[in-house]
Amino acid sequence: MPKAWEKLDLQGAGVQSLQIRLQKLQKKSLYGYLYWGLFPVGAHRFYLEQAWAWAFPLVSVAVIMLAFLGLIWEAISLAVVLCALALWDLSRIDLWISTYNKELRKASWFAKQTPAAPANYQGRADTGEKPAQWQRELQDYTRTKESERAGHPAANVPAKKGFAPGQRRLSFAEQERLLAEMAKSSKSAAAKKPPDSAEK
Description:
Layout lengths: L2 H5 L7 H11 L3 H8 L6 H5 L7 H14 L3 H38 L23 H15 L24 H21 L8
């Protein structure tokens, strides 16, 4: 998709507007690595909303204070610990960004978009009014379609089979059997018919 379409916010409640808002709120890898360059103040952890972000500026201040007091080796040791922790953070930036963006998408997609039901709500009340014509047609259509599902008996099917109006049509096999019975009955009737009496 062209970038121009991605930036065109239609101010609706659809997927396109949601994606635009997510792109604005999601964390970017480029910014995460750039902020890591300011690890003495914990900028990358503040950007990625990670725990213990305040420890970086606190340790940095402690290093400066130890150096100012002349405790060089202590300051160097603490600075090495800070750098080791910063390098460990560098290896975790991609994972943190991926996790943050995933949780953000989940929260956005599964957020309740409609207001909650009123207190003590127990469903729609039955007013006793007859359903409108379109509601009756919809109910009939739904019942018909439900009866067409496999394993469900057909609804409103006449019990009597035949060719008269209102009767259920015979299947092909039933029609074949009926024709065979009719052929047999006609033969047997012709055989039982007495021969015509001879003319006198």
